Amino acid sequence: MTQTLKIDFVSDVVCPWCVVGLGGLEGALARVRADGIDAEITFRPFLLNPDMAPEGETIGAHIARKYGSTPEQSAASRQLIHDKAAEVGFTMNTGPDSRIWNTFDCHRLLHWAGETAPDKQGALKKALFETHFTGGRNLTDPEVLADAAATAGLDRAAAAAVLADGRYAEAVRAEAALWMSRGINSVPAVVIEGKYLISGGQPAAVFEEGLRKIAADRAAAEAAG
Questions:
Q1: Can you give the residue range of the structural domain that contains 35?
Q2: How many CB atoms lie within 10 A of CB 205?
Q3: Separation between Cα atoms, residue 207 and residue 20, nearest integer Å
Q4: Residue 129 CA from chain centroid, whole number
């Protein structure tokens, strides 16, 4: 019998380590499914730049302002992330002049997908990652976001309507605040069964070890009654 673990993947669309972490988690799941362990993943909002202006900011300027990094330090970090992303099959094309965005509308769209087509929420998350990191497109542009929804197999017109009417704004704010109140202050944060936390862009082996242990502990608890 398959054990299905509930996973909340708390992340932001402009978080490069979230791409790496998702790739690692999916790699782990591919390994453990043969042993009867699966997962139901729900993507939860985290807003890295909630106050960023609509025009965004270049990555170079953003990293220098936020972390005090030199251009050389920023370039080395970016290359490391690009290499880690490539290891999980994801192409990043970012450079110092690429822009980072306010992702609030992305999270509204992800919330909509989670409510109306949960089987496509993961595909939308990946489409948004690709839109930003691979395509370098504007994540505050409703047309760009509607394109991502269509790429994920969602109804483009319905997505455009959600973006236009401000739907789910309060739900996203409340959910983001909820995860912060639970102590999530960096992402990715992978919360399993509501109580186990694996933080950061971990490799598949780390996620695999965690998933196997959690599944074994749950099976033992259920057997004990």
A1: 1-46+185-225
A2: 12
A3: 12
A4: 8
Assess if residue 38 is contained within a domain.
Answer: yes
Whole-number Å distance between alpha carbons of 117 and 125: 13
Question: The domain that contains 16 carries what CATH number?
Answer: 3.40.30.10
The sign one gets for the Cα dihedral 154, 160, 165, 168 is positive
CB 136 within 8 A of CB 20: no
Q: What percent of the chain is helix, strand and coil (3-state, nearest 5)?
A: 60, 15, 30
- pTM metric for this prediction: 0.96
- Confirm whether 213 is domain-assigned: yes
Rounded to whole angstroms, how far apart are CA atoms 206 and 203?
6
197 located within any domain = yes
Tokens of 222: 């259920």
Q: Is 178 a member of any domain? A: no
**Weakly modelled stretches of the chain, pLDDT under 50:** none
So what's the pLDDT on residue 67? 87
Q: How many helices (H) and strands (E) does the chain have?
A: 9, 6
What is the amino acid identity at position 211? Answer: L
pLDDT digits (tens, 9 = 90+) for 60-113: 999 998 889 899 999 999 999 999 999 999 999 999 999 999 999 999 999 999
- Would you state the structure tokens that stand for residue 203, as one six-digit string? 């490799």
In three-state secondary structure terms, 90 is coil
Q: Please, are residues 73 and 79 in contact by the beta-carbon 8 Å criterion? A: no
